[in-house]
Amino acid sequence: MQLIWRTDDSGTVRKGTMSGPRPVVLSGPSGAGKSTLLKRLMKDHEGVFGFSVSHTTRSPRPGEEDGKDYHFTTREAMQEGINNGEFIENAEFSGNMYGTSKAAVENVRAKNLICILDVDIQGVKRIKESDLDPIYISIQPPSMEILEKRLRDRQTETEESLQKRLEAARIDMELSKEPGVFDIVIINDDLEKAYEELKKILNEEITKVQEAK
Ligand SMILES: Nc1ncnc2c1ncn2[C@@H]1O[C@H](COP(=O)(O)OP(=O)(O)OP(=O)(O)O)[C@@H](O)[C@H]1O
Ligand SMILES: Nc1nc2c(ncn2[C@@H]2O[C@H](COP(=O)(O)O)[C@@H](O)[C@H]2O)c(=O)[nH]1
């Protein structure tokens, strides 16, 4: 079924009615383990999930592929896309632009797969204003100290970008405690336990997709 997007008078992105599995929003501080968990989920459930490939103006990390991990772009091109109404949401994070295009979500939903979106807390707020109606999951680290260690060990950040990410993490950790923001908050201390918890929450949607095959 075709998705029909429109922007209402208040600028809110609305979509036409369609059937299919509910999308999943994974959010939480940078370094909490979202990518680790979602990559495993997709590998273990082939043909069930599809990743909503975001746009970003940050540079690719070693091993990241354009069109698979992100659509790597420039500020000018991304701003033009935003001005043309091509994005569901966009945000500035740690000195770069990030955003979910309508096409990214549509591509996954056209295949009747569970669409997974990995977005920051600003993205969560914008998606809540849309009609996407996803399951909202926050992945949180056990502590700021452990988060900092994970980010340092990952070796992807400069000291400046690391500090920006830690600052954003403090805000994210506070907001995730607010009732009603997330359907569930998973503390990713032990990876196996966090993964089991994630699978349990998504079990109903996973079964729906598997049974529809
Ligand atoms: N439970 C865990 N225990 C120890 N290390 C972990 C755990 N979960 C993830 N990690 C490691 O922490 C680092 C950050 O994880 P990951 O890149 O998945 O985070 P992220 O939330 O996707 O970050 P970003 O938002 O910046 O993309 C990675 O090196 C990953 O291997
Ligand atoms: N609002 C959005 N946030 C996004 C999107 N894609 C990723 N992100 C978030 O950005 C940070 C940093 O990601 P990184 O890959 O540079 O480490 C992280 O919190 C992601 O969740 C998006 O489309 N919109």
From TrEMBL:
Alphabetic keyword roster: ATP-binding, Coiled coil, Kinase, Nucleotide-binding, Transferase
Matches recorded under Pfam families: Guanylate_kin
Region ranges (Disordered): 1-30
Signal peptide residues on this chain, from the entry's feature table: none
Domain Guanylate kinase-like, chain residue ranges per copy: 21-203
One MF annotation (Gene Ontology) recorded for this entry: kinase activity
Catalytic activity, EC: 2.7.4.8
Enzyme class, first EC level, given as a word: transferase
Positions with biased composition (Basic and acidic residues): 1-12
Coiled-coil region list: 152-212
Tree of life domain: Eukaryota
Entry-linked NCBIfam families: guanyl_kin
Protein name: guanylate kinase
Gene that this polypeptide is encoded by: GUK1_2
